[in-house]
Amino acid sequence: MKKKIGWLLFSLLVVTAMVLTSCGETETTTTGQTTTVTGTTTTTTTTGTTTTTTTGAEMVKTSIGTMVEKPQYGGTYTTASSADVQGFDNAYTYPYLLSTVNNTNEPLMAGDWSKGPAGTGDVTWTILGVTFMKFSKMRLAESYEIPDNQTIIYHIRPGIYFQNKPPVGGRELVADDVVFSFKRCFETPGSYLALTYRGADAPISITATKKWTVEIKCNVGKQGPLFIVTAGYINIFPRDGVPAGGNFKDWKNSNGTGAFMISDYVPMSSYTMVKNQDYWMTDPLIPENKLPYIEKYQNFVIGDESSRISALKTAKIDSYTGVTWDVGQALHQTNPELKMGKYLQSYSYSMKMHLGKGFPWDDIKVRNALSMAIDRQKILNVFFGGNATDFTFPIMPYPELGSMFTPLSELPQKVQDLYKYNLPRAKDLMAEAGQSNGFTAEIIVTSASQQQQDLLALIASMWKDINVTLDIKPLENAVFTAQLNGRAFKNMVFSYNGNSAPYKMNDWRPGNPNNAGNIDSPQLVEVYNQLNTLYPFYEAEAMALIKAQTPFILEQCWEITPPLADVNWFCQPWLKNFNGEVTCGYYQSTGCAMYRWIDSKLKKELLNK
């Protein structure tokens, strides 16, 4: 496992450092911070080598002492997505689904770009839904205070202005806007925070005590979770952006302090954003450079994966993440000029079972048998062709989560046995549970993933050896999600885990949608309550507490987790500052666009060949 983590870091750092790898003779002229390098730059990807000409490229020294190509301004960054944008208002739609809002509006705290692959490489910026204070940086707030265990105080950064469009007119951001944004997310019926932060979990009060000061009062033991969502989850909207009682669902009402402004939206087709010329932030690695670099950011809805791949191959789009390993191998063969890298997904997938309803798997012996009857090595080596990670639960083996993750080889033997293919022992356990004749179980899965359906079919063939029939039922994604969140499925569901954000303990908290099996463990509920007093302010103590739960969780075998396939990212050679990042902060998906830049000269040269 350590080898895989090391490979991930190596691949990201190699791509980040591509402009520093050169061959042939060069002429170097240094003036101040800028260095002009004349020669041929060799770009090394994770699986091949691409050579491009960068004659006369200017190099600049970053704030961490590395030399990088001097970013260029202008150009259009083009991407594609499988589905339409899900909304424009974070009080009505989960923020991680709001791809435009993460560019037009900002939170009080976000990820520190300089800590990622483009900088020190301490964090991958491929994990959604997790906050690490050491990798974070204040954004719209310049600081915060925790004066006691029931108070959070934010000091809002003065001199930040909303986009200059009516009715807001480019006025200055103040504390009242933050209070407005917080309250509507916690109080709007149906909003994510209104559903998940109820009763004692909700804020007691949110007030603006001064022009640039916001105070939140909360119940004892609830400070940590509320800090995380108020600092990094809620993007700020202007209080006068819509009439009283109105909302921002219409894209034309969009207004924020972000790097981009929406200029056009065609439902089920595309959205276009243009540069906010008055944006306030500078590049943390090159502080003299004002962000963003690109002039326009556009995204096209292309539902079919093969069509998205075709768009990348023909340079109609500039980048694509989440490419499955098999498609990635083929793409690298046909288009070796594309830069690429490999990374772990933000979460793995498990077979989750309704528990406490009298089904055979209420017996832990049956759950153990189901796990032992799966040949994980066959899945890893044959189904995934070796392009997978074998052990990812209950903590993902990300470098950022390293202090919480325990390799399987270091866990108790009885836990290791659950992950070893042992058909004779599985049959014995079924007999001991009185289930020698087996049973039939229905499992729902999203129809959007053929790979998941094929994987379940392989597992079903293995379970036949212990007389278990797995009836696979693909459902359209909206129907699947509704049944998952409402626990309306009949027996089992193949769904994602919360193992990239373990401090939330979403898979074990009663009432949480991720807890599909309705697991009710007093021990883990108590651990969660303790975590709320520790995380994120005492990260080391919180991580140690989480790590200590791994043996107990795995011994229960509440969820059955197969190996997780690797995924790839690709981008055009002219797209710079792209290393497969999918977020820069808690749920800032697509929010990295302001750091990207286009090498227009290289693009022209390559497209005219």
List the main descriptive attributes of the protein structure presented here.
5-stranded antiparallel sheet, 17 helices, disordered N terminus
Provide the low-confidence segments as ranges.
1-53
Shape: globular
Multimeric status of the protein: single chain
**How many β strands by DSSP?**
27
The average pLDDT score comes to 89
Strand content: 15-25%
Termini gap: 43 Å
- Estimated radius of gyration: 25 Å
Structural class: alpha+beta
Question: What level of helicity do the residues show?
Answer: 25-40%
Sheet of most strands:
5 strands, antiparallel
Overview of the molecule:
- The longest helix is centred in the N-terminal third of the chain and has 15 residues, at 2-16.
- It is globular and about 70 Å long.
- The strands form eight sheets. Strands 1, 2, 3, 4 and 5 form a five-stranded antiparallel sheet that branches. A five-stranded mixed sheet has the order 21-20-22-18-23. A four-stranded mixed sheet has the order 6-15-14-13, with no helix packed on it.
- Helix 8 packs antiparallel against helix 11.
- A hairpin with a 5-residue loop joins strand 9 and strand 10 (151-156).
- Mean pLDDT is 89; it is low at 1-53.
- The two termini are 43 Å apart.
- It is built from 17 helices and 27 strands.
- With 609 residues, the protein is an alpha+beta fold.
